[in-house]
Amino acid sequence: MIPREPDTLVTLAKQGSRTALARLMTYVESGGDAQRATTALAYLSNEPYVVGITGPPGAGKSTLTDQLITRALSEGSFDGEGAFSEVGILCVDPSSPFTGGAILGDRVRMQDHATNEKVFIRSMATRGHLGGLSLAVPDALRVLGCAGFALALVETVGVGQMEVDIVSTADTTVVVTNPGWGDAMQANKAGLLEIADLFVINKADRTGVRETRRDLEQMLDLGEERPWRPPIVETVATGGSGVDELWRALSEHRQYLMKSGDFTRRRRQRTRVEFDRVLSAMVQSTVQTIAGGAAYETQLEALEQHVIDPYRAAELLLDL
Hints:
47% helix; Rossmann fold; 7-stranded parallel sheet; alpha/beta; 3 domains; single chain; 7 strands
């Protein structure tokens, strides 16, 4: 029988227990004391290198992720020191705004690796978080690092212009598009120029590839000049075409991060964002506690009678 104590589960996860690792993932998703205890233990370990894969629904992100898993386990690591021994995948799915549930069906397109002992796939729900990333994702990545995973792929839901949240989680962000996805104006509206480290035109066996590449190139030309210009890679994920080129581009970007010092800068910024999220979550929890008390009802009644304004009412509650 699998134990429930986080410290015991961490020990088992380090020894290779996938059941213990899954239980820890459940803890970081459920919140509360179990999440805090798990995070405290996992925080002492090294984080994996995180590749974020995002783009609109139907772009082929899951199929492309499946191909990248194969490359990671067979073609060698980014440092050229042999293949990754294990790969962790987090698939973040949208939650229903009505029931809060999610299909969590990304594994359907990763059947080649779903039973591979070297691969750990976890589906997570956004739980209403607009940026497309569950607040538990940073903790889940630390748990993967604690269990010895050196590489993690995070595939996010395609929620259009709100998908920029991945940039605060990933070391390298891959934006997947398709031929005929829209013009350069649409690309700029979506904020893709700011978040993409690499562009992938998937389903490149369809018509419109040249126009899509042209729009992306124009967008990059008109944007602010940066030391790293995101390369554009064409792939057909269903057949594996272009995946080798994509893997080389990922390796080159990682080398750039290490040599330029951007890797350290991004990790520092990630820590800041994560800390701010934790603070916000704890403040929100306090607000929910206040909202259930008698003082809240008193101030609410005063608001309804227009004898106080909402800002002053909130200040009085916070003072309590």
